[in-house]
Design a protein that fits this description.
Helices cover 40% and strands 16% of the residues. It has 346 residues and is α/β, with parallel strands linked by helices. It has two domains: 239 residues, Aspartate Aminotransferase, domain 2; 89 residues, Alpha-Beta Complex (Aspartate Aminotransferase, domain 1), CATH 3.90.1150. α7 links the parallel β4 and β5. The structure holds pyridoxal-5'-phosphate.
């Protein structure tokens, strides 16, 4: 079997953290009710953990992956003549193979950003479509926390977007594939960033922070969750052995595992950025606020570095690359990367 070298490609190239593996093993004992149906104690325990973090009023449903959490969560808020406004760089817009368009059957309105973050002023021009029968009706603003550019929305920025959405009869959706990393950056908790800030629906991810698979769709107003079960089943995202998603979330949210993993990943990104900033041939292009470092490097250096430590090119034209750290990135990984870099640049 080909051995893949450890690198900085993505936080889902890393494996499953030991605590989650242990939880899966323990959860594997005996029989359990399928499909997370009432009476399944494992799913009930995980839901309780979510309520501890986000508040009693939420409704939470599990799906397999982040694309499904986004697409099904948004589908619940929209009809086919609606539109969702999001950053052009959003996973929803770029990396979901038009699943949103196919399954929501609705339109995506893109906003150009230099840092992955959208502002209410950028959504305003779309409002002129409201009530005009020839245009798709803007219904949702979708933001990513962290963004795909590794940047973070402050609590105030989220609140402003939520207020703006609600003032205009729209909803705020958050893609939280890396919400744990954002919470560490903001020295915040999940609740302040979502429930208290006015988010309507959240795609809550754990796969990038040490879990094996599974995402949660969280509705902050349970009325919005009505009939979601049917949409999930129709969307082929009802996991038969639901306990294996639930048992992971239960452990992930218990005793701060999410916090430990994300703290480590973010700290590694800071360390990496600190090393890289010593080289004037490199330019860090985004503020390093999470577990990713975006850096422009000489074009000829990219394949040499990729050979030693694989990572993805973010922008071919500008030679910008993305280096992602994860729960299992070590200081030695970073020092090894910097050693190769140093040999090339000095
Ligand atoms: C911002 C963001 N949202 C969602 C996802 C989840 O995608 P997947 O369907 O691969 O789990 C990802 C994964 O790359 C992501 O980066």
């Amino acid at each position: 079997m080909k051995k893949i070298k450890k690198g900085f490609a993505s936080d889902n190239w890393s494996g499953v953290c030991p605590e989650i593996m242990e939880a899966l093993t323990l959860g594997n004992r005996g029989h359990n009710e399928a499909y997370g149906e009432l009476g399944d104690p494992v799913t009930a325990a995980a839901i309780k953990q979510f309520k501890n973090h986000f508040g009693e009023a939420i409704s939470v449903r599990f799906v397999y992956n982040g694309t499904a959490a986004n697409v099904l969560g948004l589908s619940q808020l929209m009809r086919s003549y609606h539109a969702v406004v999001t950053a052009s760089t959003a996973h929803l817009n770029e990396d979901e193979c038009a699943a949103p368009e196919k399954f929501m059957g609705a339109k995506i309105l893109e906003v150009e950003t230099s840092d992955g973050k959208i502002k209410a002023e950028q959504v305003k021009p779309f409002l002129s479509s409201i009530g005009f029968q020839h245009h798709a009706q803007p219904k949702v603003i979708s933001i990513s926390q962290l963004t795909e550019m590794g940047t973070v929305y402050s609590l105030e920025e989220i609140k402003q977007l939520a207020d703006f959405a609600h003032d205009n009869n729209m909803y705020l959706h958050m893609d939280g594939a890396r919400i744990a990393n954002a919470a560490i950056t903001l020295e915040s908790d999940f609740r302040s960033m979502t429930t208290d800030a006015g988010v309507d629906v959240l795609s809550f991810g754990g796969t990038k922070n040490g879990m094996m698979f599974g995402e949660a769709v969280i509705f902050f107003n349970p009325n919005l969750a009505k009939d979601f079960e049917y949409l999930r089943k129709q969307g082929m995202q009802l996991h038969s052995k639901m306990r294996y998603i639930a048992v992971q979330f239960d452990r992930y949210l218990y005793e701060g595992l999410w916090h430990k993993n994300a703290t480590h990943a973010n700290a590694m990104a800071q360390l990496l950025a600190q090393h890289l900033s010593a080289y004037n041939q490199l330019e860090i292009t985004q503020k390093v606020t999470g577990n990713g470092v975006f850096v422009r490097m000489p074009q000829e250096l990219i394949p040499i570095m990729q050979h030693s430590y694989f990572f993805h090119i973010w922008n071919e034209q500008t030679h910008e690359v993305r280096l992602m750290c994860s729960w299992d990135t070590t200081k030695e990984d970073i020092e090894g990367f910097v050693k190769v870099l140093h040999e090339q640049l000095s």
